[in-house]
Request: fold
Amino acid sequence: MMSDPTRARNWSAAALGLSVAALLGARAMPDANVGRGWHLALMLTGMVSAPLSGIFMVICWSDGKKYRRLKAGVGVISRWTVDRARWESFREQSKGWDKREGVRPNLVNLDQPCGEAGLEIVVTGDSLLVGNHFISFEPNVSLRAYPGWMEFHFTIFKPKGPPTPITLRIPLAPAPGSDPQAAQIAEAFRAARAAGNAPFTMLSKSKFLLIFLGGFFGLTGLVIALAYLLKRGP
Reply:
């Protein structure tokens, strides 16, 4: 969940490039420097930073694709604008709910300012934009509509550790037709999900990480083996 995953992807790509450069720099050093000094520092930096920045870059690449589609209006189910009074009212209401026992906290950034023109909310089948806060859904996302507001819920499953439940509550624009609008949005959202999405972009983040890590370490092992054979010679 971030404001602009494309920007985060670019920073991650730069970090990955520096990590690879560190590994290549260590590889180019004379054999006498192996295992100490700058060689050790470059190797440790590259080996730790390369997989981490690579993982984050790939995740941001997937989220960035959803973000660009949303901004271009592709796959948009509904969009509406909440005025300042409604935004501030819902913010206080949501914070009150968060204090109740057994209620999951709302992870939408409700502290962002709402200007005179109001704050736009956009819903697609795989993401949500609330003002400048972008959220990419997991495949197990569900939606419930209530009078005046809506709630999205999904769970992030990790290769290790407990799953992370995510709850997102957003207000509807105050209008006589807001409740029928909520039902229409919920129906359109379920229809969009049932119609299916691109398999690659709708992989859960845990499966995505497993595929990426398997490919990364497999390629790394292959490069190391080739480097050893070339250095050894015939």
About this structure: DSSP finds five helices and seven strands in the chain. The first strand starts at residue 76 and ends at 82. Strands lie at 76-82, 119-124, 127-130, 133-136, 142-146, 149-156, 164-171. Confidence is low (pLDDT under 50) at residues 228-234.
